[in-house]
UniProtKB/TrEMBL annotation:
<dbReference type="InterPro" id="IPR020845">
    <property type="entry name" value="AMP-binding_CS"/>
</dbReference>
<comment type="similarity">
    <text>Belongs to the ATP-dependent AMP-binding enzyme family.</text>
</comment>
<dbReference type="InterPro" id="IPR045851">
    <property type="entry name" value="AMP-bd_C_sf"/>
</dbReference>
<keyword id="KW-0436">Ligase</keyword>
<dbReference type="InterPro" id="IPR000873">
    <property type="entry name" value="AMP-dep_synth/lig_dom"/>
</dbReference>
<keyword id="KW-0443">Lipid metabolism</keyword>
<feature type="domain" description="AMP-binding enzyme C-terminal">
    <location>
        <begin position="458"/>
        <end position="532"/>
    </location>
</feature>
<dbReference type="InterPro" id="IPR042099">
    <property type="entry name" value="ANL_N_sf"/>
</dbReference>
<keyword id="KW-0276">Fatty acid metabolism</keyword>
<dbReference type="Pfam" id="PF13193">
    <property type="entry name" value="AMP-binding_C"/>
</dbReference>
<dbReference type="InterPro" id="IPR025110">
    <property type="entry name" value="AMP-bd_C"/>
</dbReference>
<feature type="domain" description="AMP-dependent synthetase/ligase">
    <location>
        <begin position="31"/>
        <end position="408"/>
    </location>
</feature>
<dbReference type="GO" id="GO:0016874">
    <property type="term" value="F:ligase activity"/>
</dbReference>
<dbReference type="Pfam" id="PF00501">
    <property type="entry name" value="AMP-binding"/>
</dbReference>
<protein>
    <recommendedName>
        <fullName>Acyl-CoA synthetase</fullName>
    </recommendedName>
</protein>
<dbReference type="GO" id="GO:0006631">
    <property type="term" value="P:fatty acid metabolic process"/>
</dbReference>
Amino acid sequence: MRRVLRRFVNTGDLARREANFAALTPIAWIERAAKVHGSSVAVVDGERCWTWSETRNRAVRLSDALRAAGIGRNDVVQVMLDNTPEMYESHFGVPMSGACLGCINTRLDARAVAYILQHSEAKAFVYDARYDEVVADAKRILAAEYPNFAGTLRIEARVTSESDNAYEALVASGSPEATWAPPGDEWDALSLNYTSGTTGDPKGVVLHHRGAYLCALGNTLAFDGMNSRTRFLWTLPMFHCNGWNFPYSVAAIGGANVCLRQVNAESISEALETHGVTHLCGAPIVLRFATEAMNKAPPSDRRVKMMVAAAPPPPAILRAAQAAGLDVTHVYGLTEVYGPAALCEWQSEWNGLDDDAQALVRSRQGVEYATCARLDVVKPGTTTPVDRDGQTLGEIVFQGNTVMKGYFKNPAATEEAFKDGLYRTGDLAVVHADNYVDIKDRAKDIVISGGENISSIEVAAALVNHPQIHECAVVPRPDSKWGEHPCAFVELEPGATLTEADVIAYARTRLAGFKVPKTVVFEPLPRTSTGKIQKYILRERAKHLLED
């Protein structure tokens, strides 16, 4: 038997060759979309509208312009853009040049932006004029602390609606007839996304073409009804895990991208009516906005599909969304696994449950994507799965092609994350008898607010710099609007007279706006006999604080 099996190895007449192997890459789908759906709307942004043929040509022009500037394989192009056509075409044009796309969180402060630009060794930087002030401050920091950086930046292109639009000039300098090649290796880096992790120090997550291709296909399988008639509303920031790879999912099906710069109930309502939106994604706060928008619309039997991630939506919010006409799919993932990698796949037997029970099962993280090799919960420090009893806590782990390459220039963090052949998330969960995963805690004390990861350690470190604060600890507090928000428990110095407003105002001078605590509690911090703060007690207290 062994001699027979040897006939099927990758040698001789059964070797991998040009005719039977092509590197998987999601950027190739824009060529198919242009060929099959060329005259159909690809991207709409207010008064601006481009077909798939036009979008493809703009992406090719961008790739050609980047190559002409000497940018190619293993170079990083950073963009700081809203959900606009420029952001969408960058997801194709940048990797078409062979370079790696970096999407900077538009909510970050200047110091974080400066760190990402220099750490990623960016060769090009494209940013919207809306962020002129932050970019100017970041440049000053770069000049003072990284004086050699400017010499490595070959392209800086500002996006504006005025005649000095450097990005449009860059695109116009390229040719739509230029040839581009898919990656020679599907393991090549496609994107570099920075996540705050648990210490507050940004870590660069390197994702490859193969993983993005599979994740994008997984999205189309997980999200009911995605096809060429899909009208995808960009309520999810495209800078967030590359928009969970939905830029590529929409290209694969030849649907339409409806851009949205400001996410609120009014803008969603207008998009629903104007563009016939069928699908959207976001954090619990976006679910709340979408529910309000659907309730404003005239009564109809229309159903809109929505994918929700981050902290599990409260059952009451899920009930309201369903009643408004939103069919919610709850997903779970991280930047390190390309965005969503697990979903709460609906089971027909749940149709007989009452509303409360349905909302409870719908809020679970669920099972792995069809394109994810393995999702499991293991006993801490081991590779042994926990019992499927809905009680035993363990750590969520992943394996497979939709796990990152690793952390950029951080081998120690990469090795720690991949210990024992698993990607260890740091999230604690149980597994129910039906094999559905249910998160119970965040081992690394990350607060997920409005879909953004916030390091509690970073927030606490900023607050204790105040001379009247002796010590503090930050934990997540449930929030019906944001999912969670940072709640600071503060121990004051003797004689201090700080108020909650004082602490919040101070935090705003030290942190990006979305990281500022919305609740401050003044009390002695509970500690163990060795002096360690008992954060699990604080988390329970935060859960039961009276609503304002």
